Amino acid sequence: MDDIKNKFDAIVVGAGHAGCEAALACARLKLKTLLLTINIDKIALMPCNPSIGGIGKSQLVAELDALGGQMARTAEQTLIQLKILNKSKGPAVQSLRAQIDKKAYEIEMKKILENTPNLIVRQGTASGILTENKKVIGVEIEGRQVFYGNAVIITTGTFLRGRIIIGDKEYKAGRMGEYPCMNLTKSLNNLGIKTDRYQTATPPRIDKRTIDFSKTIEQPGEFEPMSFSFWNDKFIHTNISSFLTYTNKKTHEVISKNIDKSPIRSGIINTHGPRHCPSIDRKVINFPEKPRHPIFIEPEGKNTNEIYLQGLTTSMPVEFQQLIINSVVGLEDARIIRPGYAVEYDYIYPSQLNLTLESKIIDNLFFAGQINGTSGYEEAAVQGFVAGVNASLKILGKSPLILTREESYIGVLIDDLITKEMNEPYRMYTSRAEYRLLLRSDNADLRLSKYGYDIGLLSKKQYAKVLNKEKEMKLLNKFLKQKTIFPTRQNNDILKTMNSSILEVPSTLYQILKRPEISISKLLNNFGGGSTIRDNDAYNQTEINIKYEGYILKQLEEIKKYSNLEKILIPQDFDYFKIKGLTFEATEKLNNIRPNTLGQASRIAGVSPADISIIIINIKSKAGKI
Amino acid sequence: MEDDTIAALATRAGEAAVNIIKISGNKSIEIADKIFVSKSLKKLAYIKTYNLLYGNIIDKNELIDEVLISVMKAPGSYTKENVVEINCHGGLAAVNKILDLIIKNGARLAEPGEFTKRAFLNGRIDLAQVEAIADIINAKTINSLKIAANNLKGNLSDEIKYIRKNLLEIIINIEASIDFIEEDLEVISYEEIMEKVKKIYDELVELIKNEEKGEIIKNGIKVTIVGKPNVGKSSLLNLIIKKEKAIVTPIPGTTRDAIEEILYLSGIPIIMTDTAGIRKSKNIIEKLGVKKSISELEKSDILIIVLDNSKKISEEDIEILKKAKEKKCIVCINKIDKKSKIDKAQVENYVKKNFIIEISVLKNLGINKLEEKIRDLTIGKDKFEFEEKIIINKRQKIAIEQAKESIDSAIKAIKEKLSEEFPALDLRNAYNFLGEVIGENTSEEILNGIFAKFCVGK
């Protein structure tokens, strides 16, 4: 058993979006890495919607890309439509969404994994975690084979004791048609890791040939040159449309009449599912006054007739799924290829983890993705990356990568996960990021690529691109601040052609750019003589920084205001029960979550500013500072 | 619990006939026993809590002071530690000597507020009470305490909670339109949002206005009586005080030159200051007094200028009347029981006729009229309702003002048609500032609101 072939630096359990990023990060950092998966044909599968990105999520993907992760690059290679959401709004809340050819994505990701040095992919179902003195030493798989590793990263998605429900039928499965992982939970529980059950669901897929597209509204993507990854050049992407239709009174009648058949009503499902992904049954129950709900008809890929019905999630019995679908305009004759279903699975309370995603009680055991109570490919991928990087850094004896809320959505995600009490799968939104005006997709490279480069996951060439952009931004900013436009007749005539008001006094280009009607490209075309800046992104960044300067400063000030709290560390052995004056609720929650900083403590629901003051005084008086 | 024992003078140095030295901590009783010999030769360590011993403080057989010592054992004391209080009779020299002895025997000098800090750390009082204690120490008037008490009951909190609830409703709508763009939501329009935001702005302005009233109640209105010597200033003050005698409180620490009294006119605390008569003089001491009077006059909110009905207006009167232009002012023409020699038209050059009243301190005439005028100049026709939601605390005021500024910024952003995330930031800031007032943090409220209100999700 103690064969050298079975010894690794890092073992990743599960090859979904978290597992792939984790394994790639480890292997690229030169660690001998094993990636275990239950079915080698299902690597990087997208079991629900056929898209990557979206509001709040594309920010995560951009950050992952800026750090040296894989998702954005593979998505760019396999996408069939690219769309800007919130296009009419400001840059901070605009988001990209890529419709993906699912099969192509799986194939590409598998290819990358198989061709990454130091990485071995192996089929097998994990059955136990091996430890020694509260430190992980390996993984046992069904059939009792053992793999030894310095670090283990668990990314099991919905597979831990997975249970699928359609109507009154139940199956033991990780996803439809796939074996679940039945024994790992017990092993985790024995190590002291607490688990609970979550539930999620997916809509039925139908045959493209049975849809009457003429009755639906076409939803095309963008026709301009764009890139999904920072490291690719801009180009015009494949643009296969989605389509929009709506449920109607008839649909709602079918559902209401048969609501007793819905597993959420019959009691077959009584675990928490995500509120952001309610089934159509739940929508109809909770919002009876709404006359219709949108349904997006999305292709699952180029080489398939399978169509995804965004908005029609249900785990009703198949015959009722068929009735519901056929009640919708455009889908009257639609035929189901795969029924929708719900899946229930084990997750761990993420408050048992550190900000590195390492277990607080078992050394070198990391968790990422859906097992941490999140939902979404993007949320999973960034966690996989963070866990993979931190497992590697720990093995290499380097200091960990901890991203903060002030600098990234990834920081927001992880801090939320381990700090806030969650009772449903967690999905990212822009409203979760209090500094979202600073944390834009467009500046993720400027914010984070330094980390990617320092860790060793970005090449010198990639990082040089970012440094060059920074340099050009500085030069451009200086140029705009120095170049003064005088109120001559000629200049004022030019301003009039730009639909802007005339100058009364000499103004710098910087001041003129603050006018809402003036874009930087127009400004430089007319008054930009002398500028040598070529980088297009440098233009965009400079424009955003100048146009939204007031609000950007506001956010920077807020960060400063709270930075003191973020800097004060709370010892991990701090005894909250000994502090008098804390409310009972605060004491309980602080004791469970054990926040690292006062900032984190202040975000726990039920911990009031008064509680924070009491902790401050106690920390300081312990340190003899008061 | 803190390990060391602290000591300090608990009374203000030099002000009282009896001074109290307080010692708190594990060793307080032991230390006191080392320097104290009771008449009965009993040790403090053996008396019951809340009991007293009478005896002497002795240093190497030398008698320092004759004292009474009380013992309050943990946890039944203010700090929840063992507390010893030494009531000493001697002057400051003796107090200093005793403190010295205590420190030599193992205590250290307490820092300002350290007794309260220990009470807080040991769970005797909570933060709100710490704030309340600060308010009590600083409160000059009885009514400010009433307001503090009302606020603790929750008057202000209820109002802030109501405003926050409305604000959250708006934020939920805006955030839903950002994060759930494809969801076909019926979110409220920018126009409707504008209307609602403006209403919140007005409510905050109203709260801040109330705070100004709160300021008046907390700090009182400074009314200075000025005039030449012997026009009847002191008699006027005495008369007003006599009338309101039930609630007169002398303020300690007043100077010999200006005498301050607090009294209440229909619930408004008035700090009355009587000044040395203002006149030109060559006498150096008198000059100093006059200088003092003028500085008092500068500090006051309202001037009561007293003129003598029986005399012509002098150059000095004119000098004083000139001050009236800079201040809220009431002119009292006193001694109307005597024959009039004053030229009222001349006074009207400086003060509105409405605020010139005729009185006789001697015959108790016109005093009600004077009170009425003081009321007009302070709170106008309003009545003070002490059940009102009045902000009393500086911290709260600052937070509410910041909330107001944020709302103002949101209104600007909406007017300029900036996209939703910009006013959203301002509104969230306002929401957080208001949360600071009542000590609540935000966390998941916004998303929870969206999920409860809208049908969202794929």
Task: Tell me what the structure shows.
The complex is a heterodimer of chains A (626) and B (458). Chain A has 626 residues and is of the alpha+beta class. Among the domains of chain A are: 135 residues, Elongation Factor Tu (Ef-tu), domain 3; 93 residues, Orthogonal Bundle (Arc Repressor Mutant, subunit A); 55 residues, DNA polymerase, domain 1 (Orthogonal Bundle). In chain A, 36% of the residues lie in helices and 18% in strands. Chain A has 21 helices and 22 strands. In chain A, the strands form five sheets. In chain A, strands 1, 2, 6, 7, 8, 9 and 20 form a seven-stranded mixed β-sheet that branches. Chain A has a six-stranded antiparallel β-sheet with strand order 14-15-16-17-13-18, with no helix packed on it. In chain A, helix 2 runs parallel beside helix 12, helix 6 runs antiparallel to helix 9 and helix 13 packs across helix 17. Chain A is globular, with a radius of gyration of 26 Å. Chain B contains 15 helices and 14 strands. Chain B has 458 residues and is α/β, with parallel strands linked by helices. In chain B, strands 3-4-5-6-2-1-7 form a seven-stranded mixed β-sheet, covered by helices on one side. Chain B starts with 5 loop residues before the first strand and ends in a 5-residue tail after the last helix. At the A-B interface, helix 18 and helix 21 of A face helix 3, helix 6, helix 14 and helix 15 of B.
Give me a quick take on this structure.
The complex is a heterodimer of chains A (626) and B (458). Chain A is α+β, with helices and mostly antiparallel strands.
